[in-house]
Write a structure and sequence with these properties.
With about 375 residues, the chain is an alpha/beta fold. Helices cover about 35% and strands about 15% of the residues.
Length: about 375
């Protein structure tokens, strides 16, 4: 069994994939070819914003967003500690300081109720991460930002492209939304790629200039930039995947709901509660789908006791798993010094227990039942 099945998807789209790649090879515009603009318009329409700017990766999307906002040395950006390093990495690369706010135990997303107390005179942006495929509480986060001088909000939607919250799409609910087209993401290419989304004309123009070394036109450099373009072939691959994407989103939603239903039949498989934070788990726990959210389940992540033992037993049975994420960023050697005042007990507790199960739109129902059945057997033999 594969953790994410990309082969079945490729077989399903192969005629369109071959056609799209052949067209790029025929016209030879490998950088900023027509497929780039086509993809940007397609995705902007889907998200419901004026501008989509494709870039070389999800990391570049975050970095360019911060650069477009003018974030630099001495500034602070509030973000989550329970995520991949790229979210804090881009802040530090610009000489700014990541400020970490703890997360909700039932979703793993940043706790909007805790953000205000960490806002200071140097706060230049707030960067929530829409973890595991569902949006953070964007309405509450944007309201806090507005109450404190309209601080820009950048949604890191690398794991949530295609998800919705109260009818609005990921990457379209904040000042800037960012996504990744890394192959394992809900909408992936066959290499690195990413995009940022905004309704702000000025920020969009800045982002377009930054991604081509700060050029407003050839050899006219109006700002400091970088080489951050998404190449034409990768845009063509995403376009080849696009006709199937709506079906994949629905399939992910159905598979995620079915995981939750089946796991609820496993002993103690109830959504995690705040009362359990800091305590050893007595059994399997599931994360919750927040009200108003429709997740794309980039990962299906649950919480288990004795994770190393559980992972080992599942691996022996041919079931791959992953841990997203084992160490909060504020506890990582490279980031400890940035925010000594961070208090993130929920993130630390989740990091000890989370386990991601095989997931993807082409996961078969039989394989899913096998995963749940074996997980149940393993947990039955594990004592706290």
């Amino acid at each position: 069994m594969q953790f994410i099945d990309l082969k079945t998807q490729q077989q399903a789209i192969k005629p369109e994939l071959d056609r799209r790649i052949a067209e790029v090879l025929a016209h030879g515009q490998y950088i900023m070819g027509p497929e780039v603009a086509e993809l940007e318009q397609t995705l902007a329409n889907f998200v419901g914003v004026k501008h989509c700017v494709t870039v070389a990766s999800g990391t570049e999307a975050l970095l360019i967003s911060l650069m477009a906002l003018g974030v630099g040395p001495g500034d602070e950006v509030i973000t989550s500690p329970f995520t991949f390093a790229a979210s804090a990495e881009v802040i530090a690369l610009l000489g700014a300081r990541p400020v970490f706010v703890d997360v909700e135990p039932h979703t793993g997303n940043i706790d909007a109720r805790l953000i205000a107390e960490r806002i200071g005179d140097r706060t230049r942006a707030i960067m929530p991460i829409s973890l595991y495929g569902q949006l953070a509480d964007m309405e509450a986060i944007c309201a806090v930002a507005a109450d404190h001088g309209h601080i820009p909000v950048i949604e890191d939607g690398a794991q949530s492209f295609g998800a919705q919250r109260n009818g609005k799409r990921s990457c379209g609910m904040s000042t800037i939304g960012c996504s990744s087209f890394f192959p394992s993401k809900p909408l992936g290419c066959y290499g690195d790629g990413g995009a940022l989304f905004t309704d702000d004309d000025t920020l969009a123009q800045a982002a377009r200039e930054i991604r081509v070394h700060g050029q407003s036109k050839r050899y006219v450099h109006t700002r400091i930039g970088l080489g951050g373009r998404m190449d034409t072939l990768q845009c063509a691959i995403v376009l080849a995947k696009w006709p199937r994407f709506a079906w994949e989103v629905e399939q992910r939603h159905a598979l995620g709901a079915e995981y939750t239903r089946q796991l609820a039949e496993v002993a103690h498989a109830v959504p995690v509660s705040s009362d359990e934070v800091g305590l050893p788990l007595s059994g399997l726990r599931t994360l919750a789908l927040a009200p108003g959210n429709r997740s794309v389940y980039a990962q299906y992540t649950a919480l288990v006791p004795h994770r190393d033992v559980v992972q080992g037993e599942l691996k022996s049975a041919g079931i791959p798993t992953a841990v997203h994420y084992p160490i909060p960023l504020n506890e990582q050697p490279a980031y400890r010094s940035f925010d000594a005042d961070a208090r993130t007990p929920v993130a630390s507790w989740l990091a000890e227990h989370v386990i991601s199960l095989p997931m993807g739109p082409d996961l078969s129902w039989d394989d899913q039942r096998q995963v749940v059945g074996l997980l149940s057997e393993v947990l039955a033999g594990v004592s706290v």
